[in-house]
Fold Beta-lactamase class A.
Amino acid sequence: MSPSEFFEAVGVRGFLHAHRLGSSRECGLDADSPVVMASVVKVPLAFEFARQVAAGQLDPTDRVRASAADRLGGTGSAAFADDAEYSLRDAALLALSVSDNTAADLLFDRVGVDNVRSLLAELGLTRTTVIGAPRDVLRTIIEDTSAGRPLRALDPLRTSATTPREMTTLLAAIWADDVGAPVREWMSVQVGWHRLTAGFPPEVAVAGKTGTMPGIRNEIGVATYPDGTAYAVAVFTTGGAETLRRPDIDRAIGAAARAAVDQLRS
């Protein structure tokens, strides 16, 4: 089956780009269409953090405190019952491994939203926009819900957004740069194995980052085969908003990614 057929089978629209790192080989499906980033935004955040650490601008052992006012709900410290304190590098780990929104907020405070935007511009990712930290996206949801209007957070023209091709370009930069080593490590221990990772056999190492909102399911990552070839893949879907739990769509994301990589390997 082609990638599009996997998406059609579960009733969603899919957007995909796959790129063999170190080569010009690529394939895609609506790869230049705007898509909502959701928690995928934590990847450029972590990369900019790693760059600032390497430049001596931030000390990774500096500590931040997650208080009740910071907790948004969800996973990690965002759902804690009590205040917690951890280092900046542990905030990055939490943001990528368990998609901790509070840890990402605290990291954005130190790294700076404008600096993340500057990184994207430096990489030529002109169609990737970051409106702010997770708390800023949540604020738009609260405002729009209260006003009874469509959610900006679900509209790629009005929230943090990107394209599949620009996300594989970001991944290629992270995998090509020694500064990106910690980001690669944090992505490799992501606890969610139900999307990209599920599409590949156990001998293929997958490092990824998911993003989820009502009707939006994403993941970007790199699949590295035993022969050393690596493939950056970015998959975004829209549809299936009736529930957040749609394992069939999750499996379709992995299957479509695998089909795209198989195409590049053939």
About this structure: The beta strands are 13-20, 26-29, 35-36, 63-66, 84-87, 161-162, 205-213, 216-224, 230-238. The chain has one domain: 3-265.
